[in-house]
Amino acid sequence: MTVQLTDFKLQTPDWCPGCGDFGIWGALKNALVRLQISPDNVLIVYGIGCHGHLSHFLKSYGFEGLHGRALPVAEGAKLANHNLKVIVSTGDGDCLGEGLSHFIHTIRGNHDITCFIHDNQVYGLTTGQTSPTSPKGYKTKTTPEGVIEDPVNPLTVALAAGATFVARGYAGNMPHLIELMIKALQHKGFAVVDILQPCITFNKVNTYEWFQQHTTLLESTYNPHDKTEAFRRALATESLPLGLFYQETKPTFHECLPQLADQPLIHQNIDSIKLAPFLKDFR
Ligand SMILES: Cc1ncc(C[n+]2csc(CCOP(=O)(O)OP(=O)(O)O)c2C)c(N)n1
Ligand code: SF4
């Protein structure tokens, strides 16, 4: 049966009208349809935040993690059933604040997970406080004099930790985002797409107009296999490049586990697991 957009239909989103989350929601559904991945073959693990409300608006298997903990839940699910397409839909606060250590360790393991960061540079759900990607000097109710710290750059952190697929998209350019998402979903290993997303209610600086003026597409001749060049491009601040910065091939975590070589854990017979010899030591 052909997978269609309507297969992913749940309730109509109640994000603020014009929120960048709409673009990400639309692009994700389109990417899944283009790849003919049906709702019963995909698990999306959500973070806590406005982005996490996507769980109510897109039909698939879903799980809302604790704040910052979507990635370890996704790792567990992938190891239990590595035939599932596992996606993480997270926020800049969720993934790069409380979840930053999980981000680094999931990358180190090259877990076969696709991670989409809804990067709106604020804590949207809790009414617009500073997030790890808020620009230096950015004023919010928690930083009335402006942010003192430099922002976390999700791309350079991912590259330094050894990510095998690193990209940046923009919620306001859906056709480009769909193509990036397709590549990320096809990648074997940990793929991260940092998606620039306007929060029209609380972020009055990084608006659609601002992103329109401060982003450019990576040129078609760009080579995504040169890590040094990927770092150089990811460090650009004047105009933010959009596209696939870096990709490499490396075995995934579950492929390195001999126990999973024959079949996924969920299909293995628990009767063959003999715990008695291990328990003997604790008697
Ligand atoms: C352990 C824990 N700490 C803090 C919170 C409060 N909290 C809920 S959402 C959120 C921030 C969400 O920001 P982000 O991840 O950027 O998502 P957005 O709402 O912008 O999509 C925070 C701090 C929480 N729910 N749990
Ligand atoms: S508060 Fe911001 S991120 Fe949340 S739904 Fe509204 S516009 Fe979107």
Describe this structure in words.
This protein has helices spanning 21-34, 70-80, 92-98, 100-109, 154-161, 174-186, 208-214, 227-234, 276-280; strands at residues 42-46, 61-64, 85-91, 114-119, 122-123, 129-130, 165-170, 191-196, 215-217, 240-247. By secondary structure, it is of the alpha/beta class. An 8-stranded mixed β-sheet has the order 2-1-3-4-8-7-10-9, with helices on both faces. A two-stranded antiparallel sheet has the order 5-6. Strand 9, helix 8 and strand 10 (240-247) form a beta-alpha-beta unit. Helix 3 packs across helix 4 (100-109). The radius of gyration is 19 Å and the shape is globular.
Jot down its keywords.
283 residues, single chain, binds thiamine diphosphate, two-stranded antiparallel ribbon, eight-stranded mixed sheet, 9 helices
List the SSEs and their pairings:
Layout: H1 21-34, E1 42-46, E2 61-64, H2 70-80, E3 85-91, H3 92-98, H4 100-109, E4 114-119, E5 122-123, E6 129-130, H5 154-161, E7 165-170, H6 174-186, E8 191-196, H7 208-214, E9 215-217, H8 227-234, E10 240-247, H9 276-280
Parallel strand pairs: 1-2, 1-3, 3-4, 4-8, 7-8, 9-10
Antiparallel strand pairs: 5-6, 7-10
The chain binds thiamine diphosphate and iron/sulfur cluster.
Thiamine diphosphate binds at residues 47-51, 67, 91-94, 118, 120, 122-126, 131.
In short:
The chain is α/β, with parallel strands linked by helices and 283 residues long. The protein is 29% helix and 17% strand.
Number of helices: 9
Strand content: 15-25%
Unreliable residue runs: none
Proportion of residues in helical segments: 25-40%
Bound ligand species: thiamine diphosphate, iron/sulfur cluster
Q: What general form does the structure show?
A: globular
Class from secondary-structure proportions? alpha/beta
Give the ordered list of helices and strands.
Answer: HEEHEHHEEEHEHEHEHEH
Strand order of the largest sheet: 2-1-3-4-8-7-10-9
Largest sheet: 8 strands, mixed
